[in-house]
């Protein structure tokens, strides 16, 4: 059996120090203070010295790898051990090849198909628990109701004014990312996200019942290769980041 590790980052790749500080504030309030969620990037490590995730690119697979905790696009936050997989390294290589084909970079969607959704799919194939709900809760709140811990109501009342203000900032930020995440206008999940009705529903889902794409390219190991999984070269990650941010 092999340990499966989730690596989590604060999304701080906007190019604006003010925006990055706003994201960090959102994450401190919503995650660190009340345990609700935030704006995060995630990646999975199993076998070898690399983590695997998913991000936008115009051509090819959106599945990529980089050294654990070293994605240059974001600010590293923490890691969580999700359990142990019974999959051999050969089986993990096969899973990654299949996911690489099933997750093309152009299919990336901030709210519907992001890095956290990919990590959930990878974990399911590995036979371990999925990501904690708070990691992708801000995205999920755009489409469905969520469950919050029993003591959340008390914390929400204690910090009501601050949370309401931060929630508006968080929504504006998420809506801005969604509008720039290369989703097509024909996409049902894309068409209504800027409306006041969607904004109200997003906040209601977030509060009543209860991360920006990464980038990179990778080579999936050969089917018969039982060596440690491929580690992406830093130069390749930089080239992919440049394509995403252009």
TrEMBL record:
Region (Disordered): 213-246
Comp. bias intervals (Polar residues): 235-246
SMART domains: DUF862
Keywords, ordered alphabetically: Hydrolase, Protease
Coiled-coil region: none
Domain PPPDE: 2-143
InterPro entries xref list: PPPDE_dom (IPR008580), PPPDE_sf (IPR042266)
GO MF annotation terms: deubiquitinase activity
Gene Ontology BP term (one): proteolysis
Similarity comment text for this entry: Belongs to the DeSI family.
Protein name (record): (wild Malaysian banana) hypothetical protein
